[in-house]
Write a structure and sequence with these properties.
Helices cover 37% and strands 25% of the residues. By secondary structure, it is an alpha+beta fold. It has ten helices and ten strands. Strand 6 and strand 7 form a beta hairpin.
């Protein structure tokens, strides 16, 4: 196990030199999510335990218990090859192109999120306020890992039964960020959901806020609730479900609490475009009056 600290230092060196985690994973023939767990959790924990006086076996067992996607047998069996491949990889020569640290951080968080996705994977039914009328919007979502386990895949079925494919980031059992593009490429219209993650496993309900554009492309923010429908991550099961917009008078007893939580004054913030804008503070007053109509 003497190779483990060296492996950690080598990965750290490559990352500091701008080598992407996905590139390191491809070169070492490891799943990106496994390498991310190894670098961000297992190896730092292992090294910390060794410094505290634990023996190597105990330290590794404890470090591996903190994640669910790294096999001890496979790790120990591939240490020599992993180390060799890491030292084969060298950072590319600088080309003068500026990096984007924020996008690098997002990419790494997407990889880390894969190990937590099992806690939230499945099919959910969401409830929120319709953009066009004072009615309850009901839409299915599917949360699962991607085919290569390198990001969390989220699929949205709109109230008009069109599908959007996006991605999710699950951060330390505290918050989740889910992002879609509602338009066909090359157009961009971000649809972003911010969910609170309860501090227990396999929650039945998630709630938060989401921000998107209304039919006139004005930003609108609303409450949203996710209710677990099934543990299935099968696409066929998901496609059997349909979205809908349900008027208040047609709500079931089960849906009324969701309507009361998401569709009342104060549960949403709308904006609108002011005709012939003056481009000063009077536009703000005019907009508020227009929204009251």
């Amino acid at each position: 196990m003497n190779e483990l600290p060296e492996i950690y230092k080598r990965i750290e060196y490559l990352r500091n030199k701008g080598v992407k985690m996905k590139e390191i994973a491809d070169h070492t023939n490891m799943a990106a999510s496994v390498l991310s767990s190894l670098y961000s959790s297992v190896l730092p924990t292992y090294i910390g335990c060794i410094k505290k006086g634990n023996n190597e076996e105990e330290a590794l067992d404890y470090a591996l218990s903190q994640v669910n996607n790294v096999s001890k047998k496979r790790l120990l069996g591939n240490l020599k090859e992993l180390k060799e491949r890491l030292y084969e990889l060298e950072p590319a020569a600088a080309t003068g192109q500026k990096e984007n640290p924020f996008l690098d951080m997002i990419s790494e968080e997407m990889l880390r999120s894969v190990q937590d996705a099992y806690n939230y994977s499945g099919i959910y039914i969401s409830y929120s306020l319709s953009s066009s009328t004072n009615a309850l919007k009901v839409e299915p979502y599917l949360i699962t890992t991607s085919e290569n386990n390198d990001y969390v895949k989220v699929i949205h079925m709109s109230a008009y039964n069109t599908t959007h494919f996006g991605t999710g980031i699950f951060s330390n059992h505290q918050n989740s960020y889910i992002m879609f593009n509602e338009r066909e490429s090359p157009q961009m219209a971000l649809f972003t959901i911010y969910l609170q993650l309860p501090m227990y496993d396999f929650p039945h309900m998630l709630k938060g806020l989401y921000l998107c554009l209304d039919y006139n492309r004005n930003p609108i923010a609303r409450r949203i609730i996710f209710i677990k429908y099934s543990d299935s991550t099968n696409m066929d099961d998901f496609l059997e479900l349909k979205g809908a917009i349900i008027p208040k008078e047609e709500l079931t007893e089960e849906q009324i609490p969701y309507y009361n939580y998401t569709c009342q004054p104060g549960d949403y913030i709308k904006t609108c475009s002011v005709p012939s804008p003056l481009l000063n503070e009077k536009d703000l007053e005019r907009e508020k009056k227009m929204l009251e109509i």
